Amino acid sequence: MNKVKKGLDNQAIGLLPLLLFMFLDNYFSYLLSFIIGITFCFVCIFLFQVLIKERVYQFLLLPSAATLVLFSVFLCLKLEPVLYVYSPLITEVILVVVLTIVGFSKRTILQKIRDSKKPTYKRTLLRTTLNEFYFVSQIVQNFYTLHLFIILLYSILPDSIQSVRTERFLYRELGLIIGVCVILYEQIRLSLMRGSLKKEMWLPVLNEKGKVIGCIARSVSRALSKKYYHPVVRIAVIYDGMLYLAKRSHEAFISPNMFDYPYYSYVLFRHSIENTVKETLGSLGKEEGITPRFLIRYTFENEKVKHLVSLYVVCLRKEDQLKMCKKREGKLWTTKQIEENMNKGVFSEAFEKEFPYLQNTVLLAERFCCENPVKQ
Questions:
Q1: C-alpha to C-alpha distance for 83 and 180, rounded to whole angstroms
Q2: The domain made up of 207-370 is a member of CATH 3.80.10.10
Q3: CA-CA distance, 53 to 297, in Å (whole number)?
Q4: 105: which residues sit within 8 A by CB, 6+ positions away?
Q5: What is the distance between the alpha carbons of residues 19 and 33, in angstroms, rounded to a whole number?
Q6: In terms of Cα–Cα distance, which of 272, 314, 311 is closest to 295?
């Protein structure tokens, strides 16, 4: 089912009933082609109504169905000579009009979804799918509008330049090619997106009470400053009564090139804080006598981010352990050295906020470490 759903996520597939009608119209009567096309369309709508339970949505089928229903009005008018020649063209005109009307509904519909009382994950899924639908609809509308404009220009050319073969291509074949190309383009685009999303870091989104209410890609969250609230862990390293600090990368999102703890990390979606601490410490956390101690949890906020910080401390007793956490330009700092360099752009924002607390509890942290002395 997952493989099927991946293919059905392509909103451009909703064009298939129209493309089927336009294709069959080249070989059968427009009436028979219409009956097959509209039957196929409503069968697809029925199937997708069943698949909604699996959270599969195909919204472009609705404009396709509306286009075919409106086309039936021309059948009732019995414009046989016109329909015989221009059925695909009339279908395109109706589709462009329908998609134009659909485009005006975007803001209203998305606002209703946003304000609905459905669970957060359902609202997020619907809004994401609808945004994809409106994106594809705009592409389809633009291409078919361009196609109609090309036909209009061709129709005013001198008869000596026009030809039956060119006319057939423009009126009957190019519309089909456009539809197939849109489907292929969208499938390729989605495949590339899935590839990039596999490498993406997914972060839990917290409400003001610290409860997880959803998730979002880190790259998206960073593009929307302070809009989302994420949990992070920070681990202070103490050795012989001094703090070990290392320079953050020049590419760091906050406080680049400033001194900070050697260990800090986002808590990923569906990961616990405790497991994140273990993963962040890596091989150091597996050393005998190394036990991370939880100190405090608080909210850190600046112009870029809003984080729920869980601050931990580890106390090292051996020089070999200190070597294991060596980082870029890392070194031990005494309390006096830190005090002399506070508020001078040397330390990260979060560290400067945490240091007064650490200063008053560092002896307590040392005592915590001594409660589990390393066995010789």
A1: 23
A2: no
A3: 40
A4: none
A5: 11
A6: 311
Indicate the length of the chain as a whole number: 376
- Please name every residue paired with 242 in a beta bridge, in sequence order, or none if there are none: 239
Q: Quick: pLDDT tens for 339-361.
A: 999 999 999 999 999 999 988 88
Say how far apart CA 331 and CA 268 lie, in whole Å: 29
Encoded tokens for 125:
């899924």
How crowded is the C-beta side of 157, counted as CA atoms within 13 Å?
A: 14
**Quick check: 316 and 238 in contact, CB under 8 A?**
yes
pLDDT tens string 62-80: 999 999 999 988 888 777 7
List the chain residues with pLDDT less than 50: 1-8, 372-376
For 254, the token pair is: 């906050």
How far, in whole angstroms, is CA 306 from its chain's centroid? 19
> What are the residue ranges of CATH 3.90.79.10 in the chain?
207-370
Q: Please give the Cα distance from 235 to 242 (Å, whole number).
A: 14
Burial class (CB in 10 A: 0-12, 13-18, 19+), 149: exposed
Q: Are 102 and 139 in contact (CB under 8 A)?
A: no
Report residue 84 as tokens.
């015989």
Q: What angle do CA 304, 267, 222 make, to 5 degrees?
A: 25
β-bridge partners, 281 = none
- Identify which of 123, 279, 313, 299 has the alpha carbon closest to the alpha carbon of residue 201: 279
